[in-house]
Amino acid sequence: MHLNASGSRSHKIAKVDVHLVSTPVTGGLADATRKVECVGFTVVRVTTDQGLEGLGLTYHEVGGEATRALILNNIAPKIIGRDPLETEVIWEDLFHYLRGVGRKGLTFGALSAVDLALWDLKGKIVDLPLYRLLGGNRTRVPIYASGGWTSYSDDELVAEMQDMVAQGYKHVKFKVGVDGAANPRRDAVRVRKVRDAVGPDIKLLLDANNCWDAATAVQFANTVRECDIMLFEEPVLADDIPGLARFKRGTDIPLATGEHEYTKYGARDLIIADAADIIQIDGTRAGGYTEMLKIAGMTQAWNLKFAPHAMEHMHLHLVSAVPNAPFLERLRLFEDVTDKVFKDAPLPVDGYMTVPDLPGHGLSLDMDFIRDADEAV
Ligand SMILES: [Mg+2]
């Protein structure tokens, strides 16, 4: 038995399991720049020598098998035998171990899922929900509904936004960039149709999914500003940081971006270039809670908003504890697989999600579903 400084038994990481859940997406869903063919989760379970289990997730549209192989073959041997409370040290070691093969992308999805599982364990070891461990007390988090594909007809788009409002959401997000991003005038008509359908009190969020250059995006934003747009997301290529800054100078619609950035270094580059009002970095890809806490602190120092992208159940406790986090995103595309992967995941009610008052993330996996899905991959 190992006794730590406070006299309690310390845990050692004993086992790492990884499961792939991939669901084909049919129906031709597309945004301005891509068609969605698959939604997949990589589910990581880290078990200690005393039988506690922590869970973490990342997601992918392609390449889940590579993430799984990296975790099982490379990351697991580096963390087995270590103390799961040492998240900072383990993160730093893994970052340097992996930095030559990727500081973004699938490599970081793998690292993020493992870090999230270690934070779940940390909460379970000290028997506290993560939001309490992080110093928060907000038990209900605002949540917005996200969908509205450019492949939808105008009627389908309006119907989905009205359905979200009927479910109690106060904020809804949809995509612009129809006809391969070649027809901003049509997009402006669609934005007006949605605004007229949902009325003046619903907050509208637009996502162009990287499709325009800065000049086109500024022109479009100034066309739709009369529709009272709360934020405009990824108006230009995510890597076009000068273009994002130019967009921000050209319109008063707040600029959101970051779902394609990784680590505190990616957040730093957006911030110092004045290329975002709302930072949407995704903790399931950008480095887990260990990195997201640093990114949240940077957004506070620059008086920006922190609104992590998607994967709401992995971000719920974090957002609860971060004062400048206005809300979380819930992707309609992920709802079905999310409901199957977790046994008891909270659902939004009237546009809010209640933070589970249980140790760690406060979630449990439906292993019957996950094992069946894993065998089918
Ligand atoms: Mg987006």
Automatic annotation (TrEMBL):
Under what name is this protein listed? Answer: L-alanine-DL-glutamate epimerase
Q: Which GO terms describe its molecular function?
A: hydro-lyase activity; magnesium ion binding
Record's keyword terms, sorted:
Magnesium, Metal-binding
Q: Could you confirm whether the keyword Transferase appears in this record?
A: no
Which cofactor is recorded for it? Mg(2+)
GO process annotations (BP) = amino acid catabolic process; carbohydrate catabolic process
Pfam families named among the record's database cross-references: MR_MLE_C, MR_MLE_N
Any idea where the Mandelate racemase/muconate lactonizing enzyme C-terminal domain is? 154-254
Q: Which organism is it from?
A: Roseicitreum antarcticum
